[in-house]
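Translate structure to sequence.
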């Protein structure tokens, strides 16, 4: 009788041998495939020696904010690739260990008057696991339990509703008084009490937590319907509208004080605002200034490229008063000396080799060579003459070396002999790659990485109609061909109007409406405005977040539901529900293009070159990023053949003069967008913002040389300033 073991073929045994498993893993995976210091595989690899002093400085600032109950501003700055993201990632891990509440604020495209609410929305989302039940398992529940603990008799495990109310109101009185007992703050205190009470019932399976969900929505700044208001103990008239900036800041300040009761500071991080439109930079910087004035127990961190931040301040985009607050504490990241940066490679290699540390043949190699399989000789040749280096550059070099080893291994018939000969292995001839291929590879990794991070965390991108609108506007304006993208006048039922030139003449107008609210009143109002519009565009697209379906109310014949049913019969109307992955894609496409200079490709001479925004946009077109997105694909397709469009220097100069006459200065990216928008449809065909910007910059250079205007170089384009002419006598 044949035993099961005897049925195993020699080939199967070879495939299952640990050495073969190691070689297969080496050929298939690359621990340096991501250039961020923070990432390798599924887990980050921490190298505490990298920027340890700077990390401790940030921790000390967070602790100071808590101990002195004050707002502390900090700027983390350094050149691209210096490790800013890694530093903030380490701060996030420190906070996740129960030491702080940390929020990375990503909704930078929100309108100025809604930025405070967007920050509040992000904080509440972080405190409630993306605003999802079970509520008794959220950080907010833990904070509130800790808040009332001093008022609960020792050993008492269960409180009656009256005892809970008394304990909570006693403990929340101090934070409310400290923040200022304006109506919105007092109401927030009652909403927190309702949340805790309802979540406790949910925990004991005596309730469904529905009121807690309504309380969370109001705490995040959203309006409530009448039945929801009653469920959380609020007057419907007081909570039907979203919170304004001042009230949002007040609720945020109260949450910071609640966090302090558990011994935790609130940390809010803003990453690289320098590549936003100039007006948006000014708006976000004013937001930071205001939060610094209004909040306590809060560390506000702005991570930025040093030179760009200085330019923004010198140009007056960031006011001096704001700069003084933000720069009160500077954490500057320098290049890392080579021996210390080498630890990044060693840490990733150690993690890669862990599964094979018991295999003698593999162990022999990494015992003799501390950088196996990269190799000490490779490291000496590549970095032996360098004193310091950017962490990103060392990781990129390791990735390229690993890829060369993979090619050599794959091309060798006998894999074990390849290992025996290492490091003297045959090298494949490295064929030069097209620049476009290198760009597409780097851009693809950056976009995919951001999407993966956002979708892996439920609270990273909470539903936010205003941010969705801003992201869509920015991407269509920067990437569309023949498109005029604008925000309509106040009172319009549309958030965006997109006018697309038709090759045969004329244009198609699309009205976009973004809705992300749990309030049926707000939904009904938005739908009613659409239904009552007398100047309906050719197409109307209602865009919602799939995680927050349209709220029509409980009644089967609710007015909002009737409006929606009627709209579906209107020609050209469409409802598009975006899943989180597509929302994350919008954020990733916008951020990666804005932060294009963070991406680098290796040139034939071995030097690194940063990418430009236009190159990233072109890569999106080549790789079908726009074509596959359910919203962007309606407006942006493949690259179009060039069309000869006549734009004269005279009309460009007249346009520049006109814009600078009514502004204190503007950048050529924004000027190009405005110029494109004001052209008639037949002259927009084949034109995009990049083409318009090229013409504007050429004319502006002539104007600068004749001393009519001043030009300052920006990462993408120029900042133009009018020069005062002497008064006529």
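Result:
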């Amino acid at each position: 009788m044949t035993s099961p073991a005897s049925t195993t073929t020699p080939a199967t045994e070879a495939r299952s041998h640990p050495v073969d498993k190691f070689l297969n893993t080496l050929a298939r995976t690359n621990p340096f495939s991501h250039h961020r210091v923070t990432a390798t595989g599924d887990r980050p690899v921490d190298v505490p020696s990298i920027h340890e002093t700077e990390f401790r400085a940030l921790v000390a600032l967070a602790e100071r904010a808590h101990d002195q109950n004050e707002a502390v501003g900090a700027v983390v700055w350094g050149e691209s690739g210096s490790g800013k993201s890694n530093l903030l990632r380490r701060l996030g891990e420190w906070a996740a260990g129960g030491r702080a509440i940390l929020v990375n604020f990503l909704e930078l495209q929100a309108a100025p008057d809604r930025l405070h609410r967007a920050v509040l929305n992000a904080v509440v989302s972080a405190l409630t696991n993306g605003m999802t039940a079970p509520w008794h398992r959220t950080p907010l529940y833990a904070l509130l339990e800790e808040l009332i603990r001093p008022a609960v008799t020792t050993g008492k495990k269960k409180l009656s509703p009256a005892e809970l109310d008394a304990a909570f109101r006693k403990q929340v009185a101090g934070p409310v008084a400290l923040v200022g007992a304006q109506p919105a703050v007092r109401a927030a205190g009652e909403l927190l009490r309702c949340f805790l009470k309802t979540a406790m019932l949910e925990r004991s399976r005596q309730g469904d937590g529905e009121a807690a969900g309504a309380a969370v929505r109001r705490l995040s700044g959203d309006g409530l319907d009448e039945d929801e208001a009653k469920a959380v103990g609020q007057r419907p008239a007081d909570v039907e509208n979203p919170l304004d900036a001042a009230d949002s800041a007040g609720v945020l300040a109260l949450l910071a004080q609640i966090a302090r009761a558990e011994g935790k500071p609130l940390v809010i991080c803003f990453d690289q605002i320098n590549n936003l439109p100039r007006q948006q930079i000014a708006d976000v910087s004013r937001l930071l200034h205001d939060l610094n004035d209004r909040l306590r127990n809060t560390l506000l961190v702005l991570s930025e490229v040093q030179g760009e931040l200085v330019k923004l301040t010198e140009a007056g985009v960031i006011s001096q008063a704001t700069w003084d607050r933000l720069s009160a504490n500077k954490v500057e990241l320098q290049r890392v000396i080579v021996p210390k940066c080498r630890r990044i490679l060693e840490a990733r290699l150690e993690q890669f080799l862990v599964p094979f540390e018991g295999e003698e043949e593999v162990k022999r190699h990494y015992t003799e060579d501390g950088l196996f399989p990269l190799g000490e000789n490779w490291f000496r040749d590549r970095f032996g003459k360098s004193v310091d280096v950017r962490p990103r550059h060392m990781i990129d070099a390791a990735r390229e070396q690993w890829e060369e080893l993979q090619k050599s291994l794959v091309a060798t018939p006998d894999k074990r002999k390849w290992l025996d000969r290492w490091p003297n292995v045959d090298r494949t001839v490295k064929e030069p790659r097209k620049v476009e291929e290198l760009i597409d590879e780097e851009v693809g990794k950056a976009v995919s990485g951001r999407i993966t991070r956002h979708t892996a965390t439920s609270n990273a991108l909470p539903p936010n109609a205003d941010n969705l609108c801003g992201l869509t506007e920015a991407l269509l304006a920067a990437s569309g061909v023949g498109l005029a993208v604008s925000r309509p006048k106040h009172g319009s039922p549309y958030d965006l109007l997109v006018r697309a030139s038709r090759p045969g003449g004329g244009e198609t107008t699309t009205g976009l409406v973004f809705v992300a609210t749990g309030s049926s009143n707000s939904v009904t109002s938005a739908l009613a405005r659409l239904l009552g519009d007398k100047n309906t565009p050719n197409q109307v697209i209602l865009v919602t977040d799939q995680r927050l379906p349209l709220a029509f109310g409980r009644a089967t014949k609710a007015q909002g539901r009737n409006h929606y049913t009627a709209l579906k019969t209107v020609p050209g109307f469409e409802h598009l529900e975006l899943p989180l992955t597509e929302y994350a894609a919008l954020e990733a496409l916008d951020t990666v293009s804005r932060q294009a200079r963070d991406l680098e490709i290796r040139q034939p001479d071995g030097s690194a070159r940063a990418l430009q925004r236009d190159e990233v946009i072109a890569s999106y077109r080549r790789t079908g990023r726009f074509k596959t997105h359910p919203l962007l694909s309606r407006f942006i397709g493949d690259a179009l053949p060039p069309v000869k469009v006549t734009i004269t220097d005279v009309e460009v100069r007249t346009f520049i003069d006109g814009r600078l006459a009514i502004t204190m200065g503007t950048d050529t990216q924004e000027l190009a967008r405005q110029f494109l928008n004001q052209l008639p449809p037949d002259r927009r065909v084949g034109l995009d913002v990049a083409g318009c910007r090229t013409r504007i910059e050429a004319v502006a250079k002539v104007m600068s040389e004749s001393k009519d205007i001043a030009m300052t170089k920006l990462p993408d384009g120029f900042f133009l300033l009018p020069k005062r002419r002497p008064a006529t006598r």
